[in-house]
Amino acid sequence: MNKIYFDYNSSTPLDKRVLKEMRVYLSDNFANPSAIYSFAQKAKNAIEDARISVAKLVSAKRREIVFTSGGTEANNLAIKGFCFANHSRGNHVITSKIEHSSVLSVFKLLEKKGFKVTYLNVDRDGVVDVSQLKESICKETILVSVMHANNEIGTIQPVERIKAICERQGVCFHTDAVQSFGKIEVNSSFADLITVSSHKIYGPKGAGALYVKSGTNIEPLFNGGHQEEELRPGTEAVASIVGFGKAAALRLSEMDEEGIKVKKMRDALEEGILKAIKGVKVNGHPQNRLYNTLNICIDAVEAQNLVINLDMKGIYASSGSACQAKIPEVSYVLLATGLSERDCSGALRLSLGKCTKESDIRFFIKTLPEIVKNLRKAASHG
Ligand SMILES: *Cc1c(COP(=O)(O)O)cnc(C)c1O
After folding, report:
1. Atom of ligand 1 nearest to the CA of 150
2. Of 94, 270, 376, 377, most Cβ neighbours within 10 A?
3. What CA–CA distance (Å, rounded) separates 157 from 160?
């Protein structure tokens, strides 16, 4: 059976060219990059080349990139690292209601540790309320964290406006750019701290980075050796970092052209579904949305049944974000946009990428209406 993967926002296939670069560091070149003999120098240099590639993709200086084990760790390092280092200046922090769980759960922890947290509302399209942000900032505010693009609905936030507001008030601004990085422009001017991840850009899992604008005071989560300017001690995951660097270099040269292709397919998918099935609503901002993401609510079906039935046809899609998939719970992101629990229960996320083919789109548009028809029939008989 033909397999169709529509879950690129959850993870992406490893690019063959990336694997090729990684191989030597998984076998022959196993030296600890911190060692001083010449054999280790190659690993050390490879890490520095990767740092340059990642820095380039966000227009940052090489020394402003700290490698981590992924997006989750980079979000933890940014938020906890900044709050713990600066708590004497204030105990108020601001985020949004639609952040990834690796941001939201950090703020929940900070609340337990005595910080006051404001969770910003979003509008119907999933855009954060910027005037609420302005009103919320007070003398005690030290950090604002708002994601660049949402993983579920693809809505892109006005991060440059948010950064300008924070800058005027002397507040640090962090953005989780895991979903936008490698798809659209992510620039170091967008925030003081920026989270990125490797496995969402055709790199290996287990690598990510935090951009730390020079002069930003954060403290490490771990203590140990001198690696990563002491912000992330521990022997580097050389192969993963090398792969991440190669993936970033490839994105820099290929993302614009691929974006045009992917957008065309996503738009065709959206149009085809809306034409073929009644009672479908598209979520996220109509324009300011990642070009690869389509999140829809389908009336009178359960998302989990949809996902299972699609799976039987060889189609892999998501009923929400991957982290929630095991708990049959409606999406907190969609609820925050004002949808009812009932509306959200039939939410399906389709996210496309560079291996998506036009024939995949055609097959999906042919397959989905039949599944929906059968599920609706079964529901009305039950
Ligand atoms: C995937 C994702 C993360 C987590 O990144 P990992 O590298 O998987 O830990 C964080 N934020 C967003 C928006 C994501 O999509």
Report:
1. 13
2. 94
3. 9
